[in-house]
Write a structure and sequence with these properties.
about 900 residues; about 45% helix; 20 strands; 6-stranded antiparallel sheet; alpha+beta; 4-stranded antiparallel sheet
Length: about 900
Amino acid sequence: MPADESTKRSIALDDADWSWATWRPIQAPQKIETRAFDLDDCLERLAAKVKTVRYEWDFSRAGISPGMSTEEARFWLEVMTTYDRKEEPEKKAEQLRKKKLGAITVDAVKNAFKKRTVVPTEIVAALLAHFGPLAPTDMLLTDKPGSDGYNAGGEFFQGWRRWVLPQLSQADREALAKRIRSKVTAANFPTDPYEEPSGEFFVAASIGMHAELLPVVSSWADDRFGKEDWDDAYHVPQLIIFGLGSGTLVSEHIRRLKLRLREEAYMRAWLAHTEYAGLDWASKTIVETKNKDLAASLAGVLALVHAPENAGPMLEIATRSKAPKIGAEWLNQNVGCAAAGLGEIAAGRGALAEAATERLREIKRAGFGNLIGGVAKNVAAALDAKEKDLAPMQKPPPWLSGPLSKAVSLKAPAWIEPSQLPHLDIEDKTLTTDQVGTLLGALAASTLEKPHPLVTLVRERATPPSRDAFVWRIFEAWLTEGAPSKQKWALAAVGLLGADGSALKLAPLVRAWPGESQHQRAVLGLDVLAGIGTDVALMQLSGIAQKVKFQALKRRAGGCMETIAKSRKMSRDELEDRIVPDGGFDEKGERTFDYGPRKFHVVFGSEGAPMIRDDAGARKPDLPKPGAKDDAALASKAVADWKLLKKTLRDVTKIQVVRLEQAMVKGRTWSVKDFDTLVVRHPLMGNLARGIIFGCGKATFRIAEDGTFADEKDAKYTLPKTGTVTIVHPLDMPQSTKDAWGQIFGDYELLPPFAQLGRATFALEPKEKKASDLAARFKGQEWGVSAFVGKLARRGWLHGQPQDAGYVGDHSKPFFSANITAIVEHTGYPIGSREYADPQKIEKLYFVSGVDGRSTKALKLANVDRKALSEVLLDLT
């Protein structure tokens, strides 16, 4: 399909969709042309077109419409009121071929409904053709709706609205309004969340009873439908709100009540009311929809909007939803609207702004740069600077020509367009489109363990930022295609060509994938992070090994770290110390961002957050937008580097705070030399550690802002040349030392990264010293299973092996420095359905020797390390 370069706005809804907005003029009823009855044709459609879907018959493909004779309507009424969902439609067709059908009454149809669990939408068309419009309308109003029958907001109503409503004249509508007006009140709307509204409310919404419906909707409290996910399932308030008298009122109340547009009909109705003003709420619903099929259905409706205002919503769908392909296709096909609508988004900050900027680059690469106009100066600078001086390698250098020629038979997959990928910066040149296609083929033929020689050369020669952009776009294209498992090389490619930027983007996905039934993809993601291999990537891997709610993934990540540490002949702690990225700071702990005429320097605020200081000394929370006098290329690079630094610092803080706290809990030590190199002189760790009290021998000290040391008297402290350094646990400090440090921290307004001085500590009670079980401390206490398990997971406890029916009844936590393991046995829960478990009670709490899980003999509590004992009680209290 050729790209549409126009920006003329339109919404491709049909007349039935627009009729949701009852404040618009209604069309006069159209005469229905009736076709002659053809029994053989009906039998053939029944046998061939009616299918069983989810244990029910689906009539949607059988061509049933109001344009049928009364004889044909009688035929379909017979089918829909008597079929057995367990039998095949072909068998029913054979039965009806031999059966002579007599007359049927409305009451007979009603009685048949009472025996059925599902009423197909298409039965309304048959009722209309056989009895006229008033019969199905009367059925909707007079019979008590039920969720297992033709409920007011369900299949019967949808069929009534589709076929009967257009046949009602203005006089019919006025007569209906007079009939039901007294019933459409706030007092008559149900309060029980399981009770469905009566049919009067839905008919009122369909025929435009605006004055009656507004008091009903206005009576609903803001939080009425937002407490539980299913709160709107029975009341279907969306259908009532769609009957209000203006798009403004509809938008106001849908947003006020935080209602999702979780059906295709709702999405069409929303667009009919709000047109271009409600696209943000439509995309919000789609992004929050977890079911892929439903997300695709809703996104398909939003894709009917052709307007620059829809570029942002479709970009969100392409990057954040379960229907990325629809969003990506809209952006590719509606290139004029995309070019006009993404500029304002790209001028902002955050992930969506970055995605918008990259899409604009793709539009420019595709030859539509002339459509991009009126963008902010910083966006224009980014688009101009990204691919400066990168001439294609028409004649590749000798080091590249050999591997290229050997890989030329490897073809790019059809779902990636080589010309649309970001340019690889290889010695100030880039690959031609054909060469990129060859590289894609080489990536598809590679594995993490055995990359193609061409891939290895590109990794060695191309700049890390350009490799990041190139390979991440491939990965996004794979996700857009639905992430087919046969093409998982696109994920592995991130490990072959990715750098720090890719690692920071990939890690959150790896953490989330097991919860989306993508455990194997998450496992491959761990290998990809290891394949990237930079300090940032390995730190992300370490963070997953420390803290993620999916225990199998956590153990696998830990195994990856152990393997890497062993290959480097280090302990895991030593490896994790050495992979903390330095953030690009120089040996003096300084970093500058250069705009050409202006320069900005990184400083750290009082809470450790990075800030910018200009040449005049003024501090700012962020880099300013590049100006007209700035060097566009330098400024664009500076902004990109600053964004990467902020992400890196955020993750360093998140991951390393957990490590430092566990170092205190477990009694981790550093040699004086390693402490000086890996903590004090490290530009990021040194800043993070300034709120921590360290110990060497009997002395305690802190790291001052200038990198020197001070003791609890605020006197200069000199670290000895040998010995070990620890993070002092409060149990190892006398009260006088804690008081002195508390005074200093208050005077200097120092903020510790975790609880140290103020940490709650616990000790054994006299009667417990001869015991081996602490469960008595928690007698009579119970916790909800999610709260209990969640807290244990956050504090580093591992659940035991699931037993019969996947039941988990214990958790353990090792303390390596003390060489013991704490074990808590509790009520238990089924690992796959915790929500159905009983509240948890602690049944046993004890310690065993070792950290390998072999010992089962409980230790006397008096012999347990007092810090381990205190930390366990802190976790569970």
